[in-house]
Design brief:
This protein has 328 residues and is of the alpha+beta class. The protein has three domains: 95 residues, Beta Polymerase, domain 2, CATH 3.30.460; 137 residues, no CATH class; 53 residues, no CATH class. Helix content is 47%, strand content 16%. It is built from 16 helices and ten strands. The strands form three sheets. The chain has a five-stranded mixed β-sheet with strand order 2-4-7-6-5, sandwiched between helices. Strands 8-9-10 form a three-stranded antiparallel β-sheet. α13 crosses α16. The longest helix has 19 residues. The radius of gyration is 25 Å and the shape is globular. The N and C termini lie far apart (52 Å).
Amino acid sequence: MGGSAFVQQFGIESKRIPDEQYLVLTDGLQKIFTEKFNKIHLVKSYRQKQDHGDADFLIWSNENFFDLDLLGEEIGATHRVKNSNITSYLINGFQVDLIFCRQKWFETSCFYYDFDPSGNLSGKLAHKFGLKLGHDGLSYILCDCKNTYKLGQIDVSNDPEQICKFLDLNWGLRKNGFDTQKEIFEYIVSSKYFNHKMFSYEAMNHIARTRDRKRESYRQFMQHIEGCEAKDFEFEQDKEQYLGYINDFFPEAKLRETIEQLFAKRAKVTELSQKFNGEIAMKISGLVGREFGTVFGSYKAGKGEWLEFLENNSSENIQDDFKKYLNQ
């Protein structure tokens, strides 16, 4: 995405094309992709966009393997680059991205990627509630008390309409689409939860700040809100204050119940790990570094469900068993 996929590997800067040419190209590609994949979606832009730097297709296919080189030949691509779940093709100097999605996240991926940069901006609204919004929907990242260890990611909602309602974003407006980029920006600003500071580069970590500074659409949004007189919503510093509201708004997520279960599971893991852990195993084996990691990992893998193994055996029995394993 972004039209620069071929610069690093091939030294090729893809070209922008006018909207008329874009519509002809993407219409032809949609016909080809519809025959080959279970679901496709051309990521939407605002209607009055005059030119395009790339075309993004969201793809769901139930086939585990697909011949991407053969597909490239069929659509007339001269170059191909694969980066994780995104395959980029260069067609007559123009970049076309295929973003492969899981079936369960297809609708939320459409919601997140459509009308750039609305997905990214909506994600910053969600973040102030302690939530994460991405292609996989709205989720809650639970960490330990010191905020150093991720205990789990809890799915909160995969319903775009409900997500918009939660963030006080006009679902009907978004569903109908936008004529101009300014309308997309105003759609975000219209939320009662809007706050200028949440979008500032200073409020981001290094990775997000570097990424968003490179995005033209984000820079344009920042320019737009410089003169914006919308009232800033004041969020609580402690994001846990919003757990009750989230739980009540999305009761099907069972957020509080799941949080309690994850904390209980973590406590159980901590308790069981006192019986036998990496520190104990390292002392017994005398191994360190990668060699120890390989040996200990292999031992654990051979025990099936590790926590169940710890629960059903005493510390002494496990240590004896590990010594026998080392002497094989």
